[in-house]
Amino acid sequence: MLAALVLAAVNLLAGALGAALWQTGSVRGSGASRFWISLRVAQGCALAFAIGIGALAAAGRDCSERLFYLYALLPLAVAFVAEQLRVASAQTILDQRGLESSAAVGELPESEQHELVAAIVRREIGVMALSALVVVFLALRAAGTAHGF
Predict the structure, then answer these.
(1) Domain boundaries in the chain?
(2) What angle do CA 54, 56, 59 make, to 5 degrees?
(3) Is the pTM of this model over 0.70?
């Protein structure tokens, strides 16, 4: 199914860009902006894919391989879980540094504050890039099991 391959390609782009940013630690600037935009586009594609599959199923066009539906809908669950992990990234970094809250961050010197924010954003990028790469695998599996479409 072509739509699943497009979903895989869009997520591969976002995942590869995020992985490169995470690896280099370049969490500011245009590269980071491009990553977040490409990630949101990829997530939108996953939602559109799931809605399209649902519309086909509602219209009576069923896939003969039931496992296809699992692979087609799991990207939404992956995105949801990844967003929850992304939200927890800040607290994880604060805990690692022995800081109790964001108020404690305000007491740090400005250079350390910037370093802390960069570490949080880097972790967020890593989590979301990994989620995009998981979606690549799921989309390719969906394409491989899309019999009957």
Answers:
(1) 2-144
(2) 110
(3) yes
